[in-house]
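Me: I'm a chemist; would you kindly supply a protein sequence with its structure tokens?

Assistant:
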Amino acid sequence: MICIEHSEDMEAFFHDALLHYKEGTNAFKDKLPNLTQSFFDFTEACFADGAIDKKHKQLMALSVSIYSQDEYCIIYHMKGAVENGASEEEVTEAIGVSAALGGGAAFAQGVTLAKDAFEYYSSK
């Protein structure tokens, strides 16, 4: 992963990453529409408000994404966490929990990509 320094570069990076994910999803959906739609329906249900609100579900997903070093999901769930009102302190604690379980690799993703994604989405 490269360090993203300038806001124009950040905007292009995060926009392109999510666009790349959507393009891949659409290509997969063309070949397996029922499976893809079922997955979308399932994840939509998982992230709906319930006993745990959307913000905390996004923070949980962010921690798991960092732990598993899934860069697309780090970006996607950071966006979701910020859009659902997660503060910098909450995001930082979620990164810490992930690092406690995932060690140095999770810590590295948290203090680079996750941090950059928070800065980008919280400034929009």
User: Anything to note?
Assistant: Helices lie at 7-31, 33-46, 54-68, 71-83, 88-122.
